Amino acid sequence: MRTTLGKHLLGMATVLLFTAPFLCAQTSTTIAIRAGRMFDGKADHLVTNQVILIKDDKIAQVGPEGQVTIPADAVTIDLSNATVGPGLIDGHVHAYETGNMLDDLLKESWQYRELVGLTNVQKDLMAGFTSVRDMYAQYANYGDVDLRNAIDNGLEWGPRMQVSTGGLTATGGRGLNGWSPEVNIPKPMVEIDGPVEARKMVREEIYAGANWIKVYNTGLYHWTEDGHFVSIPSMTAEEVNAAVDEAHRRGTKVACHAFGGPGLQECIDAGVDTIEHAIDISDAQLAQMRAKGIYKVATLYHYVHEEEADLKDTNGKYSLARTSAESFRRSVKSGVKIGFGTGVGPFPHGSQAKEFKVMVDDGMTPAQAFRSATSVDAEMMGWADKVGSIEPGKYADFIAVAGDPLTDITELERVKFVMKGGKVYRNDFSDQSKPSLATTNWYAR
Predict the structure, then answer these.
(1) Which of 373, 375, 376 is nearest to 299 (CA)?
(2) Exposed, middle or buried: residue 207 (CB in 10 Å: 0-12, 13-18, 19+)?
(3) Residue 14: its pLDDT value, please?
């Protein structure tokens, strides 16, 4: 089922130097970052006048200026007028989406879509998202595995990735329409029917290289006349249980797309690792999620964006955005773990930091929102020992902004500095008219 042409195209893309944002190879293996303000990814506050020492691609030492000795041969990056934080993590992206699924499908080959996916995640990196979790490779076969591997192997540049290959649903479960059944168009997800097929597909996706299994357990929805939100289950409880059990037996986590209703409850009962969206969720379900350690990933801005674009709900009376916001406020109060994820793809890649303001508007503190996209997402993804906070031994993944995001969370929409693994991909603070070590000895934009 896997196409190899995507791999060849990614290799060919590396010779096109104009596509890369960096030009010069590093000449030193030690960097010192002077951080005027720093958010470590775990605290509720900023600390000031910090020095971060980086050796190769890892953090070697962090501490107040005066307590950390900068080696004489180190490259120093001066961010003394900025706020430095861990690289951001988006726990729900759609790398292959551009906002017009049907049009894209009719016009683009798998090979072209691989380049679309690469371009999209590169936009995410330049916006400060040094790690992403891709929530199914829409119309891209197992291209997300190839994309992740090409980045990990240094064939291409982009964020660290976890991928879920094809989302699983039952026949007709996604509830999408828009083309004649006589037209042979590939389906966006893998359709399974029955527990045996669910287990078989989970095994195949893990064999292909999936980090996550995604089950799509609600599709169609509507409101009743009295305003009750009705979300139709896509799969049976037996199918969900089989998929989750098979994945967990093989050490792989499961994400469940569920808007609400019985489909959401089936995923909670099955013990999935994350619930995506949870637009309509009860207090009892939140309590059950908290007890089981299940994370919620809300993708709030996605629904706000849809309403701004006049993509209304089924009857025009009720609002997905308002329903989602109300559920999110109760989720924050419940103490359930909330990861940061945006569902970017239907809206432009690189713009997903708008999610932060919606999270704060809907009940989070700025520090909680910032943590959700750093240490919380790192824990959710099983990467707490690698990324998500500024601590020795972790990857040197950083962002920097001019202001204070704990005062104005929208600062995270204006990232000016991006480092991943000790390499600078963006530095809008440097004076390009005066070449410095920070711009000439590192991968500079």
Answers:
(1) 373
(2) exposed
(3) 40
Q: What is the mean pLDDT of each run of 10 residues along the chain (445 residues)?
A: 44 40 55 98 97 97 96 96 98 88 70 93 98 89 95 98 95 64 74 96 98 94 86 96 98 98 97 97 98 98 75 61 95 98 95 98 98 98 98 98 98 98 96 42 37
Residue 130 and residue 88 in contact, taking contact as beta carbons nearer than 8 Å = yes
> Rounded to whole angstroms, how far apart are CA atoms 429 and 78?
9
Q: Which of 249, 290, 295, 299 is nearest to 272 (CA)?
A: 295
CA 61 to CA 392: how far, in whole Å? 5
Give the count of alpha carbons within 13 A of 364, CB side only.
31
Calculate the CA dihedral of residues 54, 57, 59, 65 and round it to 10 degrees.
20
Three-class HEC string of the chain: CCCCHHHHHHHHHCCCHHHCCCCCCCCCCEEEEEEEEECCCCCCCCEEEEEEEEECCEEEEEEEECCECCCCCCEEEEEEEEEEEECEEEEEECCCCCCCHHHHHHHCCHHHHHHHHHHHHHHHHHCCEEEEEECCCCCCCCHHHHHHHHHHCCCCCCCEEEECCCCEECCCCCCCCCCCCCCCCCCCCEECCCHHHHHHHHHHHHHHCCCEEEEECEEEEEECCCCCEEEEECCCHHHHHHHHHHHHHCCCEEEEEEEEHHHHHHHHHHCCCEEEEEEECCHHHHHHHHHHCCEEECCHHHHHHHHHCCCCCCCCCCCHHHHHHHHHHHHHHHCCCEECCCCECCCCCCCCCHHHHHHHHCCCCHHHHHHHHHHHHHHHCCCCCCCCCCCCCCECCEEEECCCCCCCHHHHHCCCEEEECCEEEEECCCCCCCCCHHHHCCCCC
Per-residue confidence (pLDDT) for residue 435, from 0 to 100? 36
pTM: 0.90
**Of residues 28, 37, 29, the one with CA closest to residue 60:** 29
How far apart are the C-alpha atoms of 145 and 162, rounded to whole Å? 9
Looking at residue 308, its pLDDT comes to 62
Q: Pick from 169, 97, 98: which is nearest to 137 by CA?
A: 97
Cα separation, 279 vs 263, in Å, equals 12
Enter the tokens of residue 219. 């599709």
End-to-end CA distance of the chain: 37
Measured between alpha carbons, how far is 200 from 31 in angstroms, rounded to an integer?
A: 48
